[in-house]
Amino acid sequence: RSDGYDLWLRYDPLPPAERASYRLLLRSAFFAGDSGSMQAAREELQRGVGAMVGAAPIAVASLGNADLIVGTPAALPALKSLGLPLNAAGPEGFVLRRIAWKGRDVIVVAGNSDVGVLRGIFALLRRIQTGQPLESLNVVEAPRYALRLLNHWDNLDRTVERGYAGQSLWDWHKLPGWVDPRYTDYARANASVGINGAVLNNVNASAEILTPPYLEKVAAIAGVLRPWGVRTYLSARFTAPIAIGGLKTADPLDPQVQRWWRSKADSIYRLIPDFGGFLIKANSEGQPGPQDYGRSHADGANMIADALAPHGGTVMWRAFIYSPEEVDRARSAYDEFKPLDGKFRSNVILQVKNGPIDFQPREPFHPLFGQMPATRVGMEVQITKEYLGFATHLAFLGALWEEVLDSRTATPRARVAGEISALAGVANIGTDRNWTGSHFDQANWYAFGRLAWNPTLRSSDIAQEWSRMTWGNDRQVTETVVPMMLRSRDAVVDYMTPLGLTHLMATGHHYGPGPWVDDLERRDWNPTYYHRATRDGIGFDRTAGGSNAVSQYAGAVQHCWSSLECVPDRYLLWFHHVPWTKRLRSGRTLWADMVKRYDDGVSAVREMRRDWASLNGRIDAERYREVTAFLKIQEQEAKWWRDASIAYFQSINGLPLPPGHAPPE
Ligand code: GCW
Fold first, then answer.
1. Catalytic residue status for 465
2. Fold identical between 16-141 and 495-540+577-653?
């Protein structure tokens, strides 16, 4: 298929020589067990190997003549004698090993659970897709985080908040009577990268999702996702006891309210025994919450956590709060939640966005990471590209997430990745044939899953895997596509918000430039609030002389970012208000450097177009054409960003354009 429906699970036929060598290793397979997950594993193996190698492994009923042995020690006790490192695989991981067994060389795919085995099959298929040898296979993997979740911002009318890939996948109207086969392909894709949960509905939640008719629909989806190791979660509206329960209050300390949530949880678990839990946006952007009743975020989260606890469910309580009264929006979440450290139940995860503002092309990491030692903290990233050009701009977010996960927190060795216990990604998925609105945005879904499984993976390796699986193993294609992907996010930063600028997008939809906007009802929504440009300088002073948001960071980080000498250029105007004439590390003045970066952003996109054009004929025409057209849009809009931003800032600082700057076309 060339419409992108198959995502990275294309299983294109391999070249003849490779086919022959893989075929010898994979003629037959023995599967221990017949659970839904094992059936899924068997079918995926047969589908993948069949398509790539030309012949699917024959399922055999005895071990003796199998090339491939697949199962758990519980289902196949003989696995216990092989000395496999299954302890290191944990409940969801796997072991892949080529091993001599009874005089024959076999490939073993083992896990401690059938879902682990399924993930092992996907890992094996990925190796075949990317042309890696299996002769000395010896792998053990376990996920770094127990919760690796997609958050769908899907409304019940099938619109998707910040969705750029069509309608919501969930066809509520036809559920539960009709269960779209697409849900299975969705689950397969998630399983292939290790995503193990999905919050089905928007955090700006309608209470209706918790009514019995909707819960039956949810249960039907959960039934499809289950064998693939993906648990179902829901966003809950804090005032659901009023909206659908007939109560007069949603006060978390009110016994009737507590009872309502307990019985709601009980009825959900009767329908969905492995239900994952609730995601909650409370007292944020107009959503109701415990503070409406004079209670704290901990009171609210704990009350719902107590209702889920008997069933093993989790509450993910979002830390995304801010109000126009704050001195600085970037300070809000830390100021509110830091004093609550240690006050949350053990089945609460505080879900914190990667940066302190809002999914911008670049932000420093959120100051709550590493500073809530007595709280489980999860990171929320946005896979959908609300502030990064929607679906047409190519921006590989693996690079963004790698940067955040890798950021040093307090001590030189501590990294954000080590401070969190869950990763959530706001999904970019919809009913478009290619799922994500563009072919390259599939890479962001893929990279999210891979990093949630293993946050030490390099984004360059992830891009390489994805490119080979998606565009094929042609070396020239890989060597062109991977560098395009790796520079793409910095290009977006450069043409939208260089040097630590942030939140300059047009109002509401957040598409295109709007740095001049200054008349919104909430001051903390105006771009001028963020850039603070004057005739003399630009940037938000977050040092001790300003909002002092920098004091929320620990030790060396605080020290460095407070100082103009030490702060990296990429965060310069995030933390400092700097004169236009100040010389930067480049030797250029701030103004000249900024203009240069806008130019660089445009040039980078122009080069991406040129590089892509060199692949004409090496990629199927349908996908080639769409990417070509999207890159053209991106170049036009990169110029729009550059020209509008430079003209606006010039209208404030009155400075001439630096020499060498290409005038607007
Ligand atoms: O990024 C902002 C978005 C809102 C979103 C909010 C949030 C779901 O503009 O659309 O609402 O963040 O994360 O809650």
1. no
2. no
Q: Is residue 662's pLDDT more than 90?
A: no
Angle between helices 590-613 and 475-496 (to 10 degrees): 150
Catalytic residue, from 386, 419, 441, 593: name it: 386
List the chain domain ranges. 16-141, 147-471, 495-540+577-653
Backbone angles phi, psi at 159, to 5 degrees: -75, 155
The closest-lying atom of ligand 1 relative to the alpha carbon of residue 358 is: 1
- How many angstroms separate the alpha carbon of residue 533 from the centre of ligand 1? 26
Between strands 138-141 and 94-101, the pairing is antiparallel
Confidence tier at 664 by pLDDT (50, 70, 90):
low
- The CATH number of the structural domain formed by 16-141 is 3.30.379.10
CATH 3.40.630.10 assigned to domain 147-471? The reply is no
Amino acid identity, position 112: N
Q: Indicate if the pLDDT at residue 175 is higher than 80.
A: yes
Ligand 1 pocket (Cβ < 6 Å) reads 153, 161-162, 203-204, 281, 285, 320, 358-359, 386
- Residue 263 alpha carbon to ligand 1 centre in Å: 30
Q: Give 80-111 pLDDT, tens digit per residue.
A: 999 999 999 999 999 999 999 988 999 999 99
Total residues found in the chain within this entry: 665
User: How large is the ipTM?
Assistant: 0.99
260 CA → ligand 1 middle, Å: 28
Mean pLDDT across the chain: 97
The pick from 160, 287, 320 for probing ligand 1's pocket by mutation, whose C-beta has the most ligand atoms within 8 angstroms, reads: 320
Which pairing describes strands 68-71 and 104-110: parallel, antiparallel, or unpaired?
Answer: parallel
Tell me the pLDDT tens digit for each residue of 224-240: 999 999 999 999 999 99
Reported as type and span, the H/E element at residue 277 is strand 277-280
Task: Compute the distance between CA of residue 122 and CA of residue 119 in angstroms, rounded to an integer.
Answer: 5
Determine the average pLDDT of the residues in 168-192.
98
Of ligand 1's listed atoms, the one at least distance from the Cα of 387 is 1
Q: Which fold, 495-540+577-653?
A: Alpha-d-glucuronidase, C-terminal Domain (3.90.1330)
Q: Is 358 a catalytic residue?
A: yes
Ligand 1 centroid distance, CA of 562 (Å): 29
pLDDT tier at 413, thresholds 50, 70, 90? confident
- Annotated catalytic residue within 43, 105, 157, 285: 285
Q: Is the pLDDT of residue 411 over 80?
A: no
CB 529 within 8 A of CB 542: no
Phi, psi (deg, nearest 5) at residue 315: -105, 125
